[in-house]
Every structure is written in C-alpha cells, then in structure tokens.
Amino acid sequence: MPHSVTRKIGTAEISIITDGATEFPTDLFPESDPSHIGDMLAQAGQDRIRTNFNAVLLREGNRTILLDAGPRDLFGPSCGNLPAALDELGVTPDQVDTLFATHLHPDHIAGMITAEGAAAFPNATLILPEAERSFWGQESNFTGALASAADWATLARAVMEAYADRLHPIAADAPIAPGLTALPLPGHTPGHSGWRLESGGEMLLHVGDIVHAPDIQFADPDIAIAFDIDMDTARKTRHALLDELATDGALVTGGHLLQPALARVERSTKGYRLTPP
Predict the structure, then answer these.
(1) Has this prediction a pTM greater than 0.90?
(2) Which CATH number belongs to the domain containing residue 267 in this structure?
(3) Which long-range contacts (CB under 8 A, 24 or more apart) does 213-216 make?
(4) How many domains does the chain have?
(5) Which tens digit of pLDDT belongs to each residue from 46-71?
(6) What is the phi/psi pair of residue 83, to 5°?
(7) pLDDT, tens digit, for every residue of 223-232?
C-alpha cells in the first residue's frame, strides 16, 4: 500500500504522506461523554476513534519542502513510514531544503531527527513559529499542570538543537516560502499553526491539529482532545476555521485527516463533514 497521495496545486506538486496510524481511547476526550462519542462514531459508521499521522512534501521549481515529519518510531510499529514514503517519491533526505513544524509535538517532529538525535535532513533549514520555539525551549514551563509533557519538551529541544545553526523562527502569519504562508491556529499549543499554499490560482489549506479524530470532531467541533493545552481556545479556533472552510469551499489537508487526507468541508445538521475534493 503506498504511503502517499500526490496532487498538483497550481504549479506545485503536493504529496500527503501517511507516516502511520493509530486509534484513540475515549478517555483522551475528557470533557466529552463517552456515550456521545459513541453516537458520533455510529453516525460515521465506525466503532473506533481512528487517526493518521501525516506529513506533506511540497515540490515546486527547485524547492523541496517537508511540512512536519511524523512520529518516527515513537508511537509503535505502525508508524515511521516517512523514509519509505520519501523513497517512493524519489526524494532523498539531502534534497529537502526546508522543514516546517506546525508545532513541536512528537508526532510532528520526531521524524526530523534520528534516534541518536542527529538531523535527519542534513541540508534543511528548520522553520517554526516563534511562539513554539519560545514555549518549548523553556524547561521551566513544564512543571505543575504541564509536568506530563516534560518528555515532549525534551524532544522538542533536541530537534531545535539538531538544527541550531539552521533554525529560523518566524512570526505567526509569516511566509515560509514563496506562495506558502503560516496560518496561526492557537489553542492546541501556544504557537500551533497550519499553512496556506497558493500556486497558479489554486489554494490548499493545512488545518494543523485543529482536528485529531475526524470521525467525531468534524461532526461535533466542541469535542476537545487532552493534548490541547488550552481546550477552550482550541474549540474557538476549530469552530472559526471550519466555518470559514465550509463557506469558502477551500481544499484542505491536516495533520490527522484520514487517508487520502485531501477534502473539502461542508456543513451538516449540527456540525461539519468532509467530502471528497
């Protein structure tokens, strides 16, 4: 089974890479009644909460950009498919000139370094939102309520250290590359971001991690996951962006959309649903 789906957006070639997949237990959605989650799953024709871990490869002109890099081997044997996917696409790690991290959670950045902590992409500049760099770089932030994320912060700092001489923090809505712009989506983490690609009169919008469990969180955007540092802000961000996407009809992808992870957003009775592009 191929690990990627490729599509042209204007003159850009976009490959959505599925690094891996897993299932979430209901207790990762602590403010939602399990019976309500069960109802959402039943409406979707599912009996489990599915998610994917996605990265995106962008090739246009002489640029090769990798947006997020998956969890490597951190989340078990079903993950870590990024190297195989790049090989399928005919891309070697040294050809990647730019990395962008939507945020510094392990399932988005572990693939940027080896198990020994070396940069997996030796010629790439790592671009990330300044608010992410600042938050995860401060060890003192991970005490008290956030003590459970201390190991994640250690990994985030290891990634930043591996690219220290090629680390480029940017403002929340700054350009990443020509035609590619960061999109601030606060709540999940302080600097959590998506991105917008515009090329040849076409557009693709990456929604970051505003949705982790597509079968339930599109249907009910009030369902929040425990990984959201600020659940209330994450809910507001999710509602606002889904409303915008349903109005504009933009083509979307995201960090956890299920393969092929390219869709459009439509309004449904109480929430939203994804439809094929």
Answers:
(1) yes
(2) 3.60.15.10
(3) 213/24, 213/29, 213/49, 213/50, 213/51, 213/256, 214/50, 214/51, 214/256, 214/257, 214/258, 214/274, 215/40, 215/41, 215/44, 215/46, 215/49, 215/50, 216/29, 216/37, 216/40, 216/41, 216/44, 216/49
(4) 1
(5) 999 999 999 999 999 999 999 999 99
(6) -60, -40
(7) 999 999 999 9
